[in-house]
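Ticket 4471: requesting a sanity check on a complex prediction with MTE. Repro inputs:
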Amino acid sequence: MDNHSHTDTPADAGPQDAPIRKDRRRFLRTAGLATAGAVAGLTIPFERHMPKGMTLAAFADDSPLAGKDGLTLLGDRPVNAETPAHLLDDAITPTERHFIRNNGLLPDSTSPEGWTLTVDGFVDNPMTMTIDDLRNNFEVVTRALHIECGGNGRAAFDPPARGNQWTVGAVGCSEWTGVRLKDVLEAAGVQDAAVYTGHEGADIHLSGDPDKFPLSRGIPIEKALDETVLIAFEMNGEALHPMNGAPLRLVVPGWPGSCSQKWLTRIWVRDQEHDGEKMGGQSYRVPAYPVAPGTDVPNEDMVVMGAMPVKSLITFPMNGAESGMETEVRGHAWVGDRTIERLEVSIDFGATWAEADLDAPVNPGAWQNWRTSVSFPQAGYYEVWARATDSEGVSQPHAIAWNPRGYNNNSLHRVGLMVS
Ligand SMILES: Nc1nc2c(c(=O)[nH]1)N[C@H]1C(S)=C(S)[C@@H](COP(=O)(O)O)O[C@H]1N2
Ligand SMILES: [Mo]
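Returned structure tokens:
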């Protein structure tokens, strides 16, 4: 495993801050990178000589990608960044390579100091707990768990779908430490009427309106009581990265990433499907029946996304690389609520397939690592394709099952190679 050290975790403004930084941090945090100087109200006499896109040294750790390594920034308001496939090669995704998907702006504080989580609604004992309460009153577990954004792969939709144009890298499998949501819900005493959770976080709506949530999603109570679902306060053995939900978040492996509420403040147990921000309309919803590409689907025919489909990624070699006549090919495969049974690789555009060596998940909810070695018959351009099959015999398709908002694209990952 590739363990990059990272000591430059962007903490919130502290008293140790140099004066130039203090009052301008908030502006910078909420402004676009390009306009950082202007929005912070700084006069920069030699601005005309500044290389385009350069960030200001005095505010270096305000960069949305501080503490991240090699991510592709898709947008900075809100911050969205994906990881190139070849940087997802580690069995466990290092924090600096875990993607970022935000719907709003970071909370004013991401410090564990004074943070509380409330569990209420259809429970016998509503509770408000600090992070220490969680640590002290419940079994603390560490698990490798994969999170994939429901819109990962959207960039390949045709006709295109609105939203972040993720290619393949809005996925990761880090090691999360926390307590089981199940244990906390059982302590709260889930009532018979409970059917769904509703999650709330402390992030700030893009409008700045304190009464609006950027995102508030939930999961069916049966899934919430699944032992893989964690309320996490550590990522890869350290505090959570601010962009990944510090100091507290849910991790719901195998379900759309949006279920894994970051900056978690409340779990509201409900007697109906949660109706929070981005639960309705076309958000994180897919047509209840297959539709032709480009179809306009009415809201009432859309259903909330559940377990994610079978999928795999080639993390070595890198797309477009040069290769010798023989190479190792490796990557990961995952599926929501099932396991991967088989991983096959093709070097002839899918005419023939050879089975790769596939690991079992290190624990339920972890992605599965695979590797194989391929030999090419002669020099030239090849494509390596990977195809996973899950425990129900379902394989990845060649084509995208089109839907209006560009979710669930689990079509085959392909890597082109120049072989000599
Ligand atoms: N509070 C809050 N939680 C959130 C989000 C958000 O915008 N706000 N984005 C969700 C989405 S859409 C995804 S895909 C995952 C991404 O987690 P990551 O940013 O740690 O990779 O966080 C989810 N949790
Ligand atoms: Mo997402």
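Notes from triage: The longest strand covers residues 380-390. Leaving this open until the requester confirms.
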